[in-house]
Every structure is written in C-alpha cells, then in structure tokens.
Amino acid sequence: MKKNLLISLLLTITTLIFGQDITGDWNGALKVGGMQLRLVFHITKTDAGLTATMDSPDQGAKGIPMSKATFENQVLTVELDAAKIQYTGTLDNKEVVTGTFNQAGQSFPLNLTRKAIEKVEVKRPQEPVKPYPYYSEEVTFVNTKDSISLAGTLTLPKKEGKFPVVVLITGSGPQNRDEELMGHKPFLVLSDYLTRNGIGVLRFDDRGTFASKGNFAKATTNDFATDVESAVNYLKKRKEIDPKHIGLIGHSEGGIIAPIVAVNCKDVHFIVLMAGTAIPGSELLLLQQEAIGRASGMKEEELKVTADINSQIYKMVNEIQNTDTLKSQITKYLLTKSKELPDLKIPEGKTINDFIDMQLAQLMSPWMLNFIRYNPASMLAKVKCPVLAINGDKDLQVDSKINLPAIENALKKGGNKKYTVKELPGLNHLFQECKTGSPNEYAEIEQTMSPLALETITNWIKSVISQK
Predict the structure, then answer these.
(1) Confidence band (pLDDT; 50, 70, 90) for 347?
(2) For residue 106, what pLDDT band results from cuts at 50, 70 and 90?
(3) What pLDDT sits at residue 62?
(4) Alpha helix locations (H) across 23-158?
(5) Alpha-carbon gap, residue 43 to 47, rounded angstroms
(6) In terms of pLDDT, which residue wins out, 62 or 465?
(7) In 3D, which of 125, 376, 348, 411 has the Cα closest to residue 250?
(8) Domain span at residue 52?
(9) Does residue 139 sit in the same domain as residue 66?
(10) Among 322, 334, 289, 281, which Cα is nearest to 307's?
(11) If residue 399 lies in a helix (H) or strand (E), which one and from where to where?
C-alpha cells in the first residue's frame, strides 16, 4: 500500500512537471551594452505543431513571425532564420524558462516568465518633451523607382513660412526615424535642435522598418540613396520649403549615402557628413574590428589572427563576383583555417559548419557585399556643393585620423573648395562625450549628442545659407 502510494505520488509529480503547457506569452529581457531590451514570445499550438511570433517592445517591433518553434523534453526552441536568431531554454516546474538567446554568433543569457516585464526608464535629458515650440507633421512619400511608401516626420520652425530644410540619413542597420539605438534617439535630439534654430528637418524610417514599406534585407547603400532622393523630391513640392536651401545630414553609412544623392540630385545644396568615410569598405571594417577588439581586451595575437582571416575573406569578395563561387571559396578557406587554428572561437553548442553558415549569412547579404566592395572616395570627388565633415577623435568605428584626411583628399581631387573638415575632441561615433569611445559605453552615457556637435552642424548650415 505504501509502495503504491509512493508510485502514485511520483506519477502525480511527473504529470505536474512534464504536462506543463508552453503556449501563451513568455517575457524576458536581454542585457546588451548596459541597457535592457525586452522580448516577448507568443507561442501558439496548431494542428501542425507550435508556431511563434516575437515582440521587441523597446524597438517598436511587434508580431515578428518566427521560422520555427518546438517544445520537446521541456526544452523550448524558437528560431528566426532571416535574422539568424535562435532561443533555446528549459522550462522548470516554477514556470520559468532558463536559456540563451543567440544572434549571428553572439550569445546572451535570457530567462522567460509569464509575467510582463516593466520598461526600465533611462535618463536621456536631451530628449525633447511635447508640446514642441515648433510645427511637427507625420508624413509619407513614395520612392517611385522601387514603388515603396516611406514614413517620417517633418518639423518646421513654424507652420507657415518658407524655410531651409535638411534630410537626416541613418547609419547602417534597420533604424527608425530617430536613429534609435542603445536607448538613445540621436536624430530626435538633432532635429529638435535644428528646428529650434530655424532649420526644418525631415527624418524617416528606413525602408522595411517600422512605418516604412519595402524590403530592408535585400537593399544596398545605393537603394537607400534612392529613398533619400525621394525625400528630396517630396520636399520640393512643399510650399513651406525653400528649394534653394535643401541639404542632407548623413551619419556613418548615411555619410556615404549623402554624397551619392548630392551627385545624382542637383536639388541638394549642401551636405553634412557625421562620421562619414572615404576609404573602401573592406579597409574600414578591418580598422573598426581592430580598434573595437583592442578596446574590448582582445590579445594582440587574437587581433592579428582575426585581421588575417578577414583580410583574406574581403580580398575574395573584391576579386570574385560570382556569388556561388565566392560562397564555395570562403567555405573552403574557413574549413582549412579551422584545422590550422584549433583555438578558433566557435559559439558554444555550434559546429564548424554552423559557424561558417553564420559567417556566410552576414557576408553574402547584398548590403555587405556592396559595402565591402564600395569606395566612397570616387563619389565624393564628384560632389560640387558645400560639405561639412565632422568626426569624433575617440570614434572607434570610423577613425578620424584616417577618414577625415581621406574625405578632404577626395574633395580636393574633385576640385571642391567649399568644404570644412573638423575633428571634434572627446567624442565617440555617436558624437557623445566619452571616456574610451568603445560601443560598450554608448548606452551608459546619459548624453545623446554633444552640444559641440550640435552647434558645429547648426552654425555651419547657417553660414552656408547666408552665403546664398
């Protein structure tokens, strides 16, 4: 009798543990670069098995359909192939899933619970608070070349009048109109400052993100340039815009896009390059990887090995145009290197083939192939309008000591004498006042954009406008 009772009790416990339902909402928060990023997985049971969607509330993304969802032996696995995301966690008897979030080779601990997670408010004293002392309008315009609708915000000093205006161009990666990253909204702060100083601003969501249509994943720098051209064409139709004073401000990759648009669109009368570049993408990536790696504490030997491998891969990208051949050659090269370098860092739980697939997924995207092969100097040499190029001297992503002289040389080569090149002391890639310039600091710094950067841009634009 006692034995049967024990068996019955064990069966009851087993049923409680292994009979748990995984469907419903599961909430977690990633800790990335000193900030919290909330994620929510919605798990649904269908006749064909489990399906899932993902929300990223702090990035304004909802209902992202996941490629795969399984729950076997108390292990939940959710994957999104397009973004190389995989979450794997184990459900315990306390309704907690303990696991790891992986994306493109990076791993972060992530535990999920049924309870919604409160948003952690971070101090961003520069962010403007409504009501604004100027006119603001939600707008849409069409890129007729690619037949996509783009959404943004137009701010003007007043509702009525005729004003100079700038289009803001975001950096690399899918970003919204505020260029939101690491808990900061640089373009919101910049547009607010400019508009308060008499300069209108149009900022818009990248194609395929937030309220803008289109496919971001298949787009290249040249495609994004056509989006900016569409923004300029839209502004020309607005009665409040002075057509002789339309300019562009591009940050990072935006500083590569701005010259392309300025050359192709004669209605652009000045451009500002914030941490722009005039060296080939392959060279920029190698410099960036070395600088950030060293700041992150990588040993010199590791830096050298990484640089050697990436240099060879970028060389292949530049020399081999056929995609299938390129993919095959890179695969062979990495397999060979994995045998020569047994200490090659492969993410936990992944095979060398998994590692190679992750590398290829990043390298073979249309954007990355174009970026590696592209030399911005060639287009900069064709720019005839006034140019302001600024760079922080602690920028580890775009080295000011290399890129500012390269920009100046390209402009000189093209005969452009209407330019200003400035290195801003103590500022990082986001133009924040910083200690080291490492991306790890971005989220921890309360300041979104240095007053020095804001004043430099605004004063230069005013000086250019006054000369017209």
Answers:
(1) low
(2) confident
(3) 82
(4) none
(5) 14
(6) 465
(7) 376
(8) 19-113
(9) no
(10) 289
(11) none
Domain count for the chain:
3
* Residue with tokens 């915000």, as numbered in its chain: 153
Last residue of a domain, one of 82, 113, 144: 113
- Residue 143 shares a structural domain with residue 247: yes
In a domain, 1, yes or no: no
* 20 vs 308, more confident: 308
Place of tokens 């990082």: 428
Is residue 271 domain-shared with residue 293, that is, in the same domain?
A: no
Q: What is the mean pLDDT of the chain?
A: 91
Task: Find tokens 């995984």 and name the residue.
Answer: 22
Check whether residue 146 and residue 183 sit in a common domain.
yes
Measured between alpha carbons, how far apart are the two ends of the chain, in Å?
99
Whether 260 and 382 share a structural domain = yes
Q: Which CATH number does the domain housing residue 461 bear? A: 3.40.50.1820
d(CA 191, CA 411): 27
- Does any domain span residue 40? yes
pLDDT at 138: 98
Q: How far apart are CA 322 and CA 325, in angstroms?
A: 5
Residue 361 lies in a domain: no
> Edge-to-edge strands of the sheet including 68-72?
61-65, 49-56, 35-46, 24-32, 106-113, 96-103, 85-91, 75-80, 68-72
SS3 content of the chain, % helix, strand, coil (to 5): 35, 30, 35
Q: Has residue 50 been placed in a domain?
A: yes
Distance between CA atoms of 328 and 325, rounded to whole angstroms?
5
For residue range 205-263, list pLDDT tens digits in order: 999 999 999 999 899 999 999 999 999 999 999 999 999 999 999 999 999 999 999 99
Q: Does 301 share its domain with 405?
A: no
Q: Is residue 108 located within the same domain as residue 219?
A: no
> Are the C-beta atoms of residues 82 and 68 closer than 8 Å to each other?
no
pLDDT band at 104 (very low <50, low <70, confident <90, very high): low
The pLDDT tens digits for 85-100 are 889 999 987 789 999 9
